[in-house]
Design goal:
The complex is a heterodimer of chains A (383) and B (292). Chain A has 383 residues and is mostly helical. Chain A is built from 16 helices and six strands. Chain A has a domain of 237 residues. Helices cover 69% and strands 3% of the residues of chain A. A two-stranded antiparallel ribbon of chain A has the order 1-4. A two-stranded antiparallel sheet of chain A has the order 2-3. Chain A has a two-stranded antiparallel ribbon with strand order 5-6. In chain A, α3 packs parallel to α6. The longest helix of chain A is centred in the N-terminal third of the chain and has 33 residues. Chain A is globular, with a radius of gyration of 23 Å. Chain B is mostly helical. Chain B has a domain of 194 residues. In chain B, the strands form two sheets. Chain B has a two-stranded antiparallel sheet. In chain B, β2 and β3 form a beta hairpin. Chain B is globular. The mean pLDDT of chain B is 86. The chains are: A mainly alpha (383), B mainly alpha (292). Chains A and B meet through α6, α12 and α15 of A and α4, α9 and α11 of B.
Chain lengths: 383, 292
């Protein structure tokens, strides 16, 4: 009897979760049609969803498998370049590759395939470096992956491979999010999709990661994180699972890099610095190591705060206080860094800890409050 | 092709990396922490030097720079690392990354994003000629000063009481606490020495460069860390040797000119990965260490 009730409850909660997600997507779609395109909200939504994907992919490695990797920027770089190289339309190649005689590649692939290729290229690279690097532990792994990211950054700017990567020049004119807006007969945009597209791609990728985490592989990852020796004793093949987590995380980082390129409309290897990896790591920490929803919330908060809410700190006026002497360029980032340090020091679990945000959690919290009140009433009645 | 100027520059840069690398290797030896903020302390010392020199004569500002840098190193340890002493290692490393992010952003704010031109220090930035190659006097001074400081530091660690305490803490944290060593003081001293050497390195390093920007410390910091790993982390002579090697190699690569300049930074990481794979304990590592 109880079991049936439990199962029914679970079904209802899943339905509520799905409905909540759908509501978010519908809200994004509607907002895009109604609000002016210049609203900062769309910057936050676009960049936030892309960062959410990258943060979740990093969390899969750092939070769920316990591998402290700092190579994310490198994998994003591969993804961005693969996407750019294979999608620049033929008619623009001459002007983009102006120093390399139009480049050597003279075909394009559809955007969806290019996104998959971006992920696959990052994953293949991860599989190659995973063989040696994953033998290292904690901080040595961190430094080695950071090192590979730096090597990639130098490699992609190398003149010799310029006909493919355009050397240290920008790659541009590839399809971006605005190309997905559906235009009416009069040439004006009829339906805006430029914010919904990154939401959908990132959503699908995050869903795949969640499915992985919930499978037996995910349980093996967490076992490795909690205690390697115990996991090995239980029959978990350490290297195989570490390699799997590393490759999959890199795949999605590659896709994220391609999306970021679409958002920024230009690619340059020099932008993918270790500072970028650090930012993503800080997002993961703010959201909570080991929480997918935490990473998503963390990225939207991070992007909203840094791109939108704290803007006034740079511009002279913040919360009505006008002090151009203090509130000048760069102050925003200082305040931001201080907040991050406070989170790291005093609120180490982040927003979500290692639990997930869901209808069930909210329901349980309400029930707990309700139960408490009920038991209090009972106590009063008994007296 | 004349390699001598590149070789000289390499030895000089190597000495400057060595001064940073000692800080990394000492902190790692004791706390098992990669102090990601160390390179930024090095950059901060450069900026402080510029600001102080606008108001004070050189003879006052150089000691003052050393003092302020040491204070910064001390405060960072007390504020950002000490509260996390019992936390997992990953948390401390994240805290170090956070400090690095904070210092860089603070520097960006204070400088207004402009590259600050470095002052030219008389005598040490004078041009001299060695074996037909023109260079600055700092090129000759750096390696000598580095070796002297290294010897002084080794004597400090081998002969004095605080040195003995450092060795004890790096061997076994908990036992040395039981033996009555004030572990927190020892760690503070380690950070003070590390920051002092980074400040000295900073004065020598930036003499060769025109300006300081907030990210100036990042690359030298990472390279110095690689040097420390190469020499066997925890070993001071190892770190110095590794730093000289990296400095010389990257300058010889630069002598190839053109496209190779891009790779002079990447070379360091190629070396790092090669070392980690072939001999993860480095050249002169402590006997037992859990890396692999």
């Amino acid at each position: 009897m109880n079991n049936i009730k439990h199962r029914r409850n679970k079904k209802i909660l899943t339905a509520v979760n799905v409905a909540l997600l759908l509501a978010i997507y519908v809200a994004v779609f509607v907002a895009e049609q109604v609000l002016p395109q210049t609203s900062m909200l769309f910057v936050v939504l676009k960049k936030g969803s892309i960062y959410a994907l990258i943060a979740v992919s990093m969390n899969l490695l750092n939070g769920f498998t316990g591998l402290f990797s700092l190579g994310q920027a490198g994998f994003m770089l591969i993804g961005a370049y693969v996407y750019g190289i294979f999608t620049i339309p033929e008619e623009f190649r001459q002007s983009v590759y102006q120093y390399f005689d139009g480049g050597v590649i003279h075909f394009t692939v559809p955007v969806v395939i290019a996104l998959v290729m971006a992920g696959a290229a990052a994953a293949i690279f991860a599989a190659l470096i995973g063989l040696p690097v994953l033998r290292l532990k904690s901080d040595y792994l961190a430094i080695a992956t950071l090192g590979f990211a730096e090597i990639l950054r130098a490699l992609f700017q190398w003149k010799i491979i310029g006909p493919v990567t355009n050397g240290s020049n920008l790659l541009r004119k590839f399809p971006n999010f605005n190309d997905f807006n559906i235009k009416g007969a009069d040439g004006k945009v009829a339906v805006y999709l430029s914010t919904l597209i990154p939401f959908i791609v990132a959503g699908i990728c995050i869903l795949l990661i969640v499915l992985l985490i919930r499978s037996s592989y995910g349980r093996a990852f967490r076992a490795i994180r909690d205690d390697e020796i115990a996991a090995e004793a239980m029959g978990v093949n350490l290297f195989k699972h570490k390699q799997l987590a590393f490759v999959i995380s890199s795949f999605f980082a590659g896709v994220g890099g391609a999306l970021l390129a679409m958002y920024q409309m230009a690619i340059q290897a020099n932008a993918f610095t270790s500072a970028m990896t650090y930012e993503i790591l800080l997002i993961v920490v703010i959201g909570g190591l080991g929480s997918v929803t935490g990473s998503c919330l963390g990225s939207f908060l991070f992007i909203a705060a840094s791109e939108w809410w704290l803007r006034g700190l740079d511009g002279g006026t913040f919360l009505g206080i006008n002090a151009p002497g203090i509130f000048r360029a760069g102050f925003r980032k200082v305040v931001f860094a201080v907040i991050i340090m406070l989170v790291v020091l005093f609120y180490r679990k982040g927003i979500m800890g290692d639990s997930e945000f869901s209808a069930k959690r909210i329901a349980e919290r309400f029930r707990r409050i309700f139960m408490k009140r009920k038991s209090k009433i009972e106590v009063v009645e008994n007296e | 092709m004349d390699y001598l100027p590149y070789l000289l520059a390499g030895v000089s840069v190597g000495g400057q990396y060595a001064l940073i690398a000692i800080g990394y290797t000492m902190v790692y030896g004791i706390l098992r922490l990669i102090n990601f903020a160390h390179g930024d302390i090095f950059m901060a010392a450069g900026l402080i030097m510029i600001y102080l020199c606008t108001a004070l004569p050189l003879a006052v500002s150089i000691p003052l720079v050393l003092l302020i840098t040491v204070a910064i190193g001390f405060v960072i340890e007390r504020a950002a690392y000490m509260p996390l002493r019992e936390a997992p290692r990953m948390s401390v490393m994240i805290s170090a990354i956070g400090v690095s992010y904070l210092i860089q952003n603070l520097a960006l704010y204070l400088t207004g994003g402009l590259a600050k031109p470095y002052i030219s220090i008389p005598w040490i930035s004078d041009t001299i000629t060695i074996l037909g190659a023109t260079t600055r006097r700092v090129t000759v001074i750096t390696p000598i000063l580095t070796i002297l400081l290294m010897i002084a530091l080794i004597l400090l660690i081998k002969k004095t009481k605080i040195g003995m305490a450092m060795r004890a803490v790096s061997r076994d944290f908990d036992t040395s606490r039981l033996m009555g060593i004030r572990v927190n003081n020892v760690i503070s001293v380690t950070f003070i020495i590390g920051s002092l050497l980074a400040a000295i390195g900073s004065v020598l390093y930036f003499t060769n460069y025109t300006a300081v920007v907030p990210t100036s410390g990042q690359m030298p910091g990472l390279k110095a860390f690689v040097a420390a790993v190469f020499g066997g982390i925890g070993s001071i002579p190892g770190a110095v040797l590794g730093a000289f090697l990296i400095g010389i190699c990257e300058n010889l690569i630069k002598s190839g000119g053109g496209a190779w300049t891009n790779f002079s930074d990447a070379f360091t990481f190629v070396l790092l990965i090669a070392v980690l794979l072939v001999r993860p304990t480095g050249l002169f590592a402590e006997k037992k260490i859990d890396k692999v």
